[in-house]
Amino acid sequence: MRSTFKILFYANKGKEKDGIVPIMGRITINGTQCQFSCKHSIPLAMWDVKGRSNSVRFA
Predict the structure, then answer these.
(1) 44 and 13 in contact (C-beta within 8 Å)?
(2) First vs last Cα of the chain: how many Å apart?
(3) Which sign, positive or negative, has the C-alpha torsion 29, 34, 35, 39?
(4) Exposed/middle/buried for 21, CB within 10 Å: 0-12, 13-18, 19+?
(5) Which of 2, 19, 28, 54 is the most core-located residue (most Cβ within 10 A)?
(6) What is the pLDDT of residues 10-56, one digit of tens each?
(7) Phi then psi for 14, rounded to 5 degrees?
(8) Closest by CA position to 11, among listed 19, 20, 23, 2
(9) Closest CA to 38 of 25, 51, 53, 55
(10) SS3 state of residue 9
(11) Which of 20, 21, 25 is nearest to 10 (CA)?
(12) Contacts of 49 (CB under 8 A, 6+ apart)
């Protein structure tokens, strides 16, 4: 049986405060989703929607 696995990172625009948004993640395995917070926030202007990434590296 073949299984699927996907990881998606996104900026949660619904929780925007002063232009800063939290980075969220979603893991999907065989259609079952689990969402989590990455515990990092960035300015919304730095989020690349098409590439689903930012231009900042976290330590």
Answers:
(1) yes
(2) 38
(3) negative
(4) buried
(5) 54
(6) 899 999 999 999 999 999 999 999 999 999 999 988 887 766 555 55
(7) -70, -20
(8) 23
(9) 25
(10) strand
(11) 25
(12) none
Torsion of CA 18, 41, 45, 19, to 10 degrees: -10
Q: Is the dihedral of CA 30, 34, 35, 37 positive or negative?
A: negative
pTM of the model: 0.73
Contact 2, 38 (CB under 8 A): no
Tokens of 55: 């231009």
Q: Which tokens is 35 given?
A: 């969402």
